[in-house]
Amino acid sequence: xxxxxDPGAPARRRRRSRADGAGYAFLSPWLLGFFGxxxxxxxxxLYLSFTDYNLFTPPTFVGIENYTRLLSDTNFHQAAKxxxxxxxxxxxxxxxxxxxxxxxxxxxxxxxxxxxxAYYMPSLIGGSVSIAIVWKAMFIDDGIVAQIGEVFGGxxxxxxxxxGDPGRTLPMLILLTVWQFGAPMVIFLAGLKQVPTxxxxxxEVDGAGPVRRFWxxxxxxxxxxxxxxxxxxxxxxxQIFNSAFIISNGSGGPxxxxxxxxxxxxxxxxxxxxxxxxxxxxxxxxIVVGLISLLLFRSSKSWxxxxxxxx
Length: 311
Fold this sequence. Notes:
Number of strands: 2
Order of helices and strands: HEEHHHHHHHHHHHH
Structural class: mainly alpha
Strand content: under 5%
């Protein structure tokens, strides 16, 4: 039995090969950037985390010594504590503010575009050095916050205002991150537009008030967007650096109250030239953020409801 050959098959294979080659050519800038600027440095830092390296002499392999040193480093424990408090308190408050403003803007009509732009603007400039300087100026001795507090009979802060009070520097930085709620607010607005108005009307007919409509209609249908924002903002909170560096004058003070994890990592790597130790800290942070992300994904099965989900 003879097999019929397709005379057009070789030409199709050549066209497919040329198309694949063109696709890889278009992908080459991203591939070069990924392997040269992301994957390559990550692999290098993983190797350096097992070495004693000071940037000026060749690295010396020391095994897991850098990781065991972390267990007895009191500054590392303080940095982890400050960062954990910032994430635990700052992220939920920021998301609550973003959702509240998104619901207000979703229901309003006149000037909606202006207010959306105005509330989104801090997300674009909030992480800059200039905003950190202005924020610091607002909370010093004669800053506007101290003046307003005196008008309302507030307790005066210690020397240096909020910036010089170890008990108030972390709340000050949390206020700064809450002020930058514009990005999650826009995502919440997009999610609110996908909630069918018929569900609100049906709930209102059943006698549900605003609180019950929010709890039983808005939150369940908005849970995928809430999960997305929670995941992104949690990861973002672990990366705080600019504002803490500027407000503390690059010291992590007062009394190590602004010694965030990334700031201490910077001190170890570029001030003390202990790049191997800093690389170990970086990989511990990667593992912790990865575990928290995994925990959020696992917990999402019980509270995130997607369209068509029978639960």
